[in-house]
Design goal:
The complex is a heterotrimer of chains A (about 200), B (about 280) and C (about 260). Chain A has helices at about 10-35, 45-55, 55-70, 80-95, 105-130, 135-150, 150-180, 185-190, and one strand spanning about 195-200. Chain A is mostly helical and about 200 residues long. Chain A has a domain at about 10-125 and about 170-190: Arp2/3 complex 21 kDa subunit ARPC3, CATH 1.10.1760. Chain C has about 260 residues and is mainly α. Chain C has a two-stranded antiparallel ribbon. The chains are: A mainly alpha (about 200), B alpha/beta (about 280), C mainly alpha (about 260). At the A-B interface, helix 1, helix 8 and strand 1 of A face strand 1 and strand 4 of B.
């Protein structure tokens, strides 16, 4: 018999959700570029995968996203794989605990995801770039704070916060809008929670 | 010997309140070709997927009764186990391509690799399947560089390579142009000559009349009729079930031209010619 | 069929090395400077990775990535040179933008580290066909189902991007505003992305059905159409890398 919803045996619908999640991440990035938005919007798919299929698939989508991005566009993306994993994980955990039942709650998820991303990316930035993010406005702030306070960690944290919090807020809100617009039959496929009922007798 | 035995099959999708299949019972013998007809939503696709175990294992939901294919009870077997006995080809040729292989040859190997068929046997089976479907000249093509008809034949080859005893075709030509559609039907005809049992859900009634020996008419998840094409297509109430009989039957009905000694109208071009010439 | 990856087909010894060994190299090249935080260790690792890139004849293909990195490194030099908290020895410049020796040194260290990490990853990425990497990982015990996901992304992603471009063009010709104020552009985003997501998920469901009946969920042992490839010098490379790692740990403890 088919095994369902264990952490290590993923259902086929959940597995084929991962390429779609990675694709949505790429498309978000493409649109952000085309529309000249000052944000990345490159983890909408990861968040949506977490909302639809839970933390394990969310985390896996994040990991695979960065591996693929590293192989196809930018090898530095390998360094930030951990951030992506946690984005998928946190949105998946919060979604399964009932935090995506309204816009106000989704906003909280956005903040949580943003703070998580900041908490993971800041040490990576300090190790890799000496604290910068590579985002122009964020790095300008980094320079100012570093000059004023002399604290690399504070400067790097603020650099990451001004970029990540708005970005992840919008990312989660877009993912939530997508989640709401999906028909029940599609969402059902990924939940993997239902037992087979019998109509005999 | 019956290849498929269905007893009081009932099924409801998880997100739905209404039964998609409502108490179906029938048998199919070895070497038969069965046509399934009915309007959209009548339950054709659901029934097709019930033969291969996707109903209920993929969707879950609520299930009752019993389906036995080639001696395996669907409810108690996994989809992978069933795949060796009964193969299915779906509507959209595009989404049946795995997307993980770079040639037609490797694509056909996909199922064999998953099911652990030894390499030597794998190669024999792929060669046989490609040849049977007339696809050997495309073996090194990229799967997505094929026409719709070729892609659908590749999908059939991928299934045939698993050596099933039964082939289920769920509207295999509804998204193809006439030429692609003809290619697919010729291939299916060849499979029948090899002794394959075939189930075909299809909207093209001329094709059903030409190729199938029995026709099942479904409506609202129930069997309305299950008999010879001549008998089903001669029913006066077919349009009530959203089915338009083959053009030859319609013409002969207008002319009231029945085969001598038969209560039914002709359903194929050949029969119609015969009957009309004899007048 | 278009694919997109940074892989550059070449006939070099490095291309013929087992992908797993290249991953192990990448890990070692990044780990050693972490274990031995001296600039010399980083510099050495960087030099080795760069010369391996040259040996694989993929230097030209690595330039665009390095160019992007270099751009950010320029800002690193400015920011660290001016504002590095340990700055003491002014060299040149006008207040408050005075370059200091310590900051420039720090920037130099960051530059070497970044170049080393990027070069180590590039060596793997530029000389390894993704499908070979996945196959080798699955043969080593990665779940074939995850292997399938990785493989299929290389074909499914370009398709999704094509759909997206079609929709983008269609929406634009229908007068969708992709210019204008920030808010107008943000509002333009959703109607663009919803149709792509819907059609992709429906396709994904249909593909899941097709994969399921072709045994993707099978529990038993799988087999391979392709015969197992043999890769040269695998044992030597692994032994060597292990030796280097052990030596650096010992050095760190004793030093």
């Amino acid at each position: 018999m088919m095994q369902r919803s264990s952490w290590f045996r993923f259902s086929t619908p959940s597995l084929v959700l991962i390429p779609v999640a990675v694709g949505i991440n790429y498309i978000g990035k493409l649109f952000a570029g085309t529309l000249k938005l000052p944000l990345w919007l490159d983890s909408i798919g990861t968040v949506l995968a977490g909302m639809l299929a839970g933390p394990a698939i969310g985390a896996l989508s994040g990991a695979i996203n960065n591996v693929i991005y590293g192989l196809t566009v930018d090898p530095i993306s390998f360094v930030y794989g951990l951030t992506s994993i946690l984005i998928g994980l946190v949105s998946g955990i919060m979604a399964s605990r009932g935090w995506i039942t309204g816009w106000a709650r989704a906003l909280v998820v956005g903040l949580a995801v943003g703070l998580t991303a900041t908490a993971v990316s800041t040490p990576l930035n300090v190790w890799f770039w000496g604290g910068q993010t590579g985002n122009f406005w964020g790095d300008a702030l980094f320079a100012v704070v570093l000059a004023q306070t002399g604290s690399v960690w504070l400067a790097s944290f603020l650099d990451e916060v001004v970029v990540d919090i708005p970005d992840k807020l919008l990312t989660v809100l877009v993912a939530y809008a997508l989640f709401r617009s999906l028909p029940k039959g599609i969402k059902q496929l990924y939940s993997g929670r239902d037992e087979l009922e019998t109509l005999d007798g | 010997m019956s290849k498929i035995r269905v007893e009081h099959l009932k099924y409801r999708y998880p997100s739905s309140e209404k039964l998609a299949l409502d108490d179906l019972s029938f048998e199919v013998d070895e070497g038969e070709m069965i046509g399934i007809i009915g309007r959209n939503g009548a339950g054709k696709s659901t029934l097709c997927q019930a033969f291969v175990g996707l109903v209920p294992h993929f969707y879950r939901g609520a299930y009752g009764g019993k389906v036995v294919v080639s001696g395996l009870e669907v409810l108690k077997s996994s989809v992978s186990q069933l795949a060796r006995r009964v193969g299915i080809v779906f509507q959209n040729p595009f989404t049946q391509v795995t997307g993980s292989k770079w040639t037609v040859y490797e694509e056909v190997a996909f199922g064999l690799e998953n099911l652990g068929v030894p390499r030597k046997e794998m190669i024999d089976r792929i060669d046989y399947a490609l040849q049977l479907l007339g696809m050997e000249k495309y073996r090194d093509r990229h799967p997505f560089d094929l026409s719709g008809g070729q892609m659908q034949r590749m999908a059939i080859a991928s299934v045939i390579a698993l050596q099933p005893e039964i082939l289920v075709l769920d509207e295999p030509t509804s998204q193809l142009d006439p030429q692609g559609s003809e290619e697919v039907f010729r291939a299916v005809h060849r499979l029948r000559e090899e002794g394959m049992t075939v189930i075909l859900a299809e909207h093209n009634m001329e094709k059903i009349a030409r190729y199938c020996n029995r026709v099942m008419l479904l409506d609202g998840g129930k069997i309305i009729d299950f008999a010879s094409p001549a008998s089903v297509f001669s029913r006066a109430d077919l349009t009530r079930y959203g089915v338009v009989p083959p053009v030859y039957t319609r013409v002969c009905r207008e002319l009231n031209a029945k085969r001598e000694g038969s209560p039914h109208f002709p359903v194929t071009l050949e029969e119609a010619c015969e009957v009309l010439k004899g007048r | 069929m278009k694919t997109f990856s940074l892989y550059v087909p070449r006939d070099s010894l490095i291309h013929r090395i087992n992908p797993i060994d290249k991953i192990l190299y990448t890990i070692t090249a990044i780990a050693v400077p972490l274990i031995l935080p001296s600039m010399a260790a980083s510099f050495l690792c960087m030099l080795i990775s760069l010369s391996l890139l040259a040996a694989a004849r993929v230097v030209r293909q690595s330039l665009p990535v390095f160019a992007f990195v270099f751009l950010i490194l320029c800002t690193v030099v400015l920011i660290q040179g001016w504002f590095y908290p340990g700055n003491q020895t002014p060299l040149f410049g006008v207040e408050p933008f005075v370059f200091h020796a310590e900051g420039l040194m720090k920037a130099c260290r960051i530059g070497i580290r970044v170049t080393n990490v990027v070069a180590a990853f590039l060596l793997l990425v530029l000389t390894t066909k993704p499908a070979d990497l996945v196959e080798e990982l699955v043969r080593r015990g990665l779940s074939p189902r995850i292997g399938y996901v990785l493989d299929s992304i290389f074909q499914i992603l370009p398709q999704m991007m094509n759909t997206t471009r079609t929709i983008l063009d269609a929406q634009r010709s229908r007068g969708l505003e992709t210019e204008g104020s920030l808010w107008v552009r943000v509002k333009a985003f959703l109607p663009l992305i919803v149709p792509v997501v819907m059609s992709s998920l429906i396709h994904a469901k249909e593909r899941a059905l097709a994969l399921e009946v072709r045994g993707l969920h099978f529990e038993g042992q799988r087999t391979w159409l392709r015969e197992k490839r043999t890769y040269p010098y695998s044992r030597e490379i692994r032994g060597g890398l292990l030796l280097v790692l052990t030596a650096s740990i010992v050095w760190r403890i004793l030093g």
